[in-house]
Design goal:
The complex is a heterodimer. By secondary structure, chain A is α/β, with parallel strands linked by helices. Chain A has one domain: Rossmann fold, CATH 3.40.50.300. Chain A contains seven helices and ten strands. In chain A, strands 6-7-8-3-9-10 form a six-stranded mixed beta sheet, sandwiched between helices. In chain A, strands 2-1-4-5 form a four-stranded antiparallel beta sheet, with helices on one face. In chain A, β9 and β10 form a beta hairpin. Chain A is globular. The mean pLDDT of chain A is about 90. Chain B is of the alpha+beta class. Chain B has a four-stranded antiparallel beta sheet with strand order 2-3-1-4. Chain B starts with a helix and ends with a helix. The model of chain B has no long low-confidence stretch (mean pLDDT about 85). The chains are: A alpha/beta, B alpha+beta. Chains A and B meet through α2 and α3 of A and α1 and α8 of B.
């Protein structure tokens, strides 16, 4: 599903990611673990093709970073659900509209959109919150809305970029459990975090990063 | 359904960003009012000068001995000459009556015989009011044996023509500057409006929206914005014209409501300016958004 082959990424600031070689298969749950600034988000950005390697290649769903066209990037992203540390919700839209957005972008009929949003909201315990605005919700609930939006169109892959960083311990555990639940339903997940305790809580394959290099894959 | 998304997002976008939208409509309205007033001012100015110019008839005086056949021949030639808007024949008697009306004296009582010649007065339509064209007409008239003299106030005509040309050049330059500055001002304002929607653009891009799906609702929003700006500017100008007439300041011969091409032009200009301005601003932003 995802393959990094001798990928190097250099920034003008001098920070770089070096010699990235790994593959992620369907149905895997992979932690990207490392301290702040080690390159976790950059790897995720290379997967959703916001950043491109200066050397080597990254292949995502058969789209190769060296040959991908701008319009293909939209196709790649339509197959990925993304969850961010800052949630990236539209604050001026209610929960329903936030969750429905990816489906509307795909051009689904309104009845289908309603059905899928209701189903996803039920799964994540958000049914009673559909008419609320994100600023009316707790951090944990906002992250659940972000997760609902990420999974509503049944993506092949979920990228979670420090989704628990802004949450208290209880909400963070809950968020991790929800993401694991999505994974257990058959979705591949790449979860970037700097928190060791999460890895112990729900162990899985972990790529450990230090200063832009993968030092361990276990 | 994607079409439905575009329309819905375009309308929702207006509702959600009411204030920046209203400010943009206001700026487009001002821009279009400036353009519309500029065009109308030029049109009215030229209309006044044109009216003044068409009052200058050309007079063809005939020989006293000219026969009825010769006069008919000349009349036919004049009326068939391209660009002749109006032709009046003044007989010797008409000339005497005119003299009497203008000077209060009967020319026949002063002299035994009527010395005033019969004549044709010719007026050209606007499209043929050029000194060169009228000169060629004069030359063709002078070929007739029965024509004694052709009087045409060329110096005055040339001066009026010169004024008209100057107005054209100055007004064109002025209008060009107005249009240029309105394009820049509006583009800048639209850029600010789009900048306020950075979050939306960033998020929909991350969710897999193609460039087209990002741009299309904004393009529609820009079109609505330009249309509203166009309608408002037309109403403002029409109200202003009505106010001038109501206060008896000036009754303009050319008004916006009698000028459908200008109304259409302003609407098209407004819609194009804002939708393309919005499109440019979004395209620019997409370069910075992932």
């Amino acid at each position: 599903m995802i393959r990094f082959k001798e990928a190097h990424l250099r920034f003008d600031t001098g920070i770089s990611l070096r010699d990235l070689n790994f593959q992620v298969k369907k149905n895997e749950f992979v932690y990207l673990h490392g301290s702040s600034g080690c390159g976790k988000s950059s790897i995720l950005k290379m997967i959703y093709m916001d950043l491109f390697p200066n050397e080597g290649e990254v292949t995502v769903f058969d789209y190769n970073s060296n040959h991908v066209k701008r319009r293909d990037i939209a196709s790649v992203r339509q197959r990925i659900g993304m969850v961010f540390q800052d949630f990236k919700l539209l604050m001026d839209r209610d929960v329903y509209s936030n969750i429905a957005l990816p489906l509307e972008l795909l051009g689904l009929k309104s009845g289908e959109v309603r059905r899928k949003v209701a189903m996803t909201a039920d799964e994540l315990g958000l049914r009673s919150r559909l008419n609320h605005f994100p600023y009316e919700l707790s951090g944990g609930e906002q992250q659940r809305v972000a997760l609902a939006r990420a999974m509503v169109n049944s993506p092949d892959l979920i990228l979670a970029d420090e989704p628990t960083a802004n949450l208290d311990a209880k909400a963070a555990t809950e968020a991790l459990e929800w993401i694991w639940k999505v994974h257990n339903d058959g979705t591949c997940v790449i979860f970037a975090t700097h928190k060791d305790q999460l890895l112990k809580q729900e162990p899985s394959r972990t790529l450990s990063l230090v200063s832009g290099e993968i030092i361990e894959d276990r | 359904m994607k079409f439905g998304y575009i329309i819905r997002e375009g309308v929702i976008g207006i509702r959600r960003a009411r204030m920046p939208f209203m400010i943009s409509v206001f700026s487009i309205t001002i821009a279009l009012v400036l353009v519309g007033v500029g065009i109308l001012a030029v049109d009215n100015g030229l209309q006044y000068i044109g009216d003044f110019q068409t009052e200058y008839d050309l007079e063809i005086f005939l020989e006293n001995e000219s026969s009825a056949d010769q006069k008919r021949d000349i009349a036919v030639n004049i009326s068939e000459y391209p660009g002749v808007f109006r032709m009046d024949y003044l007989s010797k008697e008409d000339a005497a009556a005119l003299y009497n009306a203008e000077f209060g004296e009967d020319v026949l009582s002063l002299l035994d015989d009527n010395p005033l010649p019969s004549s044709f007065r010719v007026t050209f339509d606007e499209d043929h009011l050029s000194a060169v064209y009228i000169q060629s007409f004069i030359q063709s008239m002078e070929l007739f044996e029965a024509v004694d003299e052709v009087i045409f106030r060329q110096d005055l005509f040339d001066r009026v023509q010169g004024i008209m040309q100057s107005i054209y050049i100055i007004a064109s330059g002025g209008l060009f500057l107005i249009i240029l500055s309105t394009v820049f001002l509006t583009a800048n304002n639209l850029r600010l409006m789009i900048l306020a929607r950075y979050d939306f653009i960033e998020i929909v891009r991350l969710l897999g929206a193609s460039d087209f799906m990002v741009k299309a609702p904004f393009f529609l929003e820009g079109g609505i914005l330009g249309f509203l700006g166009g309608i408002l500017s037309i109403l403002v100008i029409a109200g202003f014209e009505w106010g001038l007439a109501y206060a008896h300041i000036i009754d303009l011969p050319v008004r916006i409501m009698n000028h459908p091409e200008l109304i259409l032009g302003m609407l098209i200009f407004g819609i194009s300016l804002s939708s393309l301005g919005v499109l440019k601003a979004v395209r620019r932003m997409l370069r910075f958004v992932s």
